[in-house]
Amino acid sequence: MKELSRLSGASITIHRSDTRYRVKTGERWLHYPGQPPAFDWNLPFFRRIPVHETIEDGQVLRVMAGLQVLHTPGHTPGSVRLHLPEHGVLFTGDMLLANGRRFRRPVYFPGIDLEDYRAQWIS
User: Fold this and answer.
1) Count H helices, E strands: the chain?
2) What pLDDT, on a 0 to 100 scale, did the predictor assign at position 60?
3) Exposed, middle or buried, 6 (CB in 10 Å: 0-12/13-18/19+)?
4) Domain count, the chain
5) Taking Cα atoms as reference points, which of 9, 12, 16 lies closest to residue 1?
6) What does the alpha-carbon distance between residue 48 and residue 59 come to, in Å, rounded to a whole number?
C-alpha cells in the first residue's frame, strides 16, 4: 500500500475507528482470541502504512461529485460504504461477496463487535 501510494501519488484514507490497526504490528492484528498460531507465517507481510486522512460517518468527500461516507462497522470497526445519493449508487467494497450463484455476507472477524456487525445488516 505504501509503495502504491508513493508511485501513484494516491492518498490513503481510513475511518477513524481503524487507526488502531494501522499503528499496531502484524502480530497484534493476527492474534484475535482463538486465532491459531498457524497464521503466524503471515506476520512478516504485515507492515504499518502511512495514512494521510481519516474520515467520519456522514462526511462528504470532494471526489466524484461528493461521495458520502456511511460508517458500517462490523467487518472491521472502521468499515465504510461510499454513497452517491443523487445517482443512486452505493460502493459497498467487500460488503457483498458472491460465490458464483448468490450473494453472501463477508466473514465476521473475531475481535469485532458482534452487535455492530449485525446492525449493519438491519439498516
Assistant:
1) 4, 8
2) 97
3) exposed
4) 1
5) 12
6) 25
